[in-house]
Amino acid sequence: MTKIFVPISSLKYKPTKQMKTVLKTIFVTGTAGAGKSLLSSKLYDYYTQNGAFAAVLNLDPGVENLPYTCDIDVRDYVDIVSVMKQYDLGPNGALVMANDLIASKIDDIRSEVERVNPDYLLVDTPGQIELFAYRTSGKFIVENLTSEEKTGIFLFDGSLITTPINFVSIALLATSIRLRLNLPTINTITKTDVIGPKIKDIIQWSSNLRSLENAIAQEADGETYTLTTNILRGLNLSGFAQGLIPVSNVTGEGLVNLEGALSRILNLGEEVED
Ligand SMILES: Nc1nc2c(ncn2[C@@H]2O[C@H](COP(=O)(O)OP(=O)(O)OP(=O)(O)O)[C@@H](O)[C@H]2O)c(=O)[nH]1
Ligand SMILES: [Mg+2]
Asked: Could you tell me the distance, in angstroms and rounded to a whole number, from the CA of residue 63 to the centre of ligand 2?
């Protein structure tokens, strides 16, 4: 069977008519299972309750259940099971192909966004962050959604940050995603409701390089210590895990701080009206 992959590198978006560019777009990214979809639904509720018109765009072709009703859903364009069958691919190959197919539908997605015409567009990105961020198609979508302002949120999964080395590793990923997507990014730690007093350590690590280095020294020595502290110093030069905002998508704790940070980026300090 011939596998026809979309020649994404040759994709060039040419608007067919004047598009409205009034909306503000928030790309919710983070490690698999970190809470991207649940946070998207919480932010949708927040904007809606505060009188703004929000919409959610689901970019995950493989998701089965979502905690919100999609306004725009890439599953309307790409069916992952059909892609697997049609191109004789396994689940990961199908996701790669699906992401590229989605990018080739950018005209339709843009038209849908224009039809919905929200003030805030929440983009729930796929669980396989490396597929979205490192393939050309993900960046292509980020660049070609028309928006007055765009920002990213990167979710550090609180339940993964069990040690200082894990923390540095995920911070490295967050920086790498920021580099790829080229978006101003708010760093957020989720699941604070399940990590208990550990959150104090994590906040201390994120704001005080010396304390993080000390914690790394207690966890590791030799090559691991050297590698981790060298990465950390490199990250620190470009704003390592800056302003990490703790939130719980379950209790709602900390969401107000995240919404404030979003407002500062998207509305230049102008809060959503109560
Ligand atoms: N306790 C707790 N659970 C959470 C929180 N955020 C998400 N979860 C749970 O974590 C699981 C994954 O949440 P999702 O919102 O689907 O995470 P996701 O990042 O969209 O997952 P993928 O798209 O599969 O990568 C679900 O069971 C959520 O209920 C949180 O802040 N606290
Ligand atoms: Mg999700």
From this structure: 7
CA–centroid distance, 222 to ligand 2, in Å, is 38
Q: DSSP string covering 195-210, please? A: HTTHHHHHHHHHH-HH
| Ligand 1 binding residues, C-beta < 6 A | 30, 32-38, 60, 127, 190-191, 193-194, 248-250
pTM over 0.70: yes
How, if at all, do strands 120-124 and 72-73 pair?
A: unpaired
pLDDT digits (tens, 9 = 90+) for 76-124: 999 999 999 999 999 889 999 999 999 999 999 999 999 999 999 999 9
Give ∠ CA 89-92-96 in degrees, rounded to 5.
90
CA angle (145 as vertex; 136, 100 as ends), nearest 5 = 30
| CA 76–ligand 2 middle distance (angstroms) | 16
Q: In the chain, which stretches have pLDDT less than 50?
A: 1-21, 269, 274
**How crowded is residue 273: how many other Cβ atoms within 10 Å of its Cβ?**
7
Note whether 266 and 212 are within 8 A (CB). Answer: no
Which SS3 state, helix, strand or coil, does residue 156 take?
A: strand
Q: What is the pLDDT of residue 270?
A: 52
Q: What homologous superfamily is domain 20-266 in, according to CATH?
A: P-loop containing nucleotide triphosphate hydrolases (3.40.50.300)
* E-only strand ranges, the chain: 24-30, 54-58, 72-73, 120-124, 149-157, 185-190, 245-246
CA distances from 61 to 75, 99, 198, 259 (A): 5, 8, 34, 27
Count of positions (residues) in the chain? 274
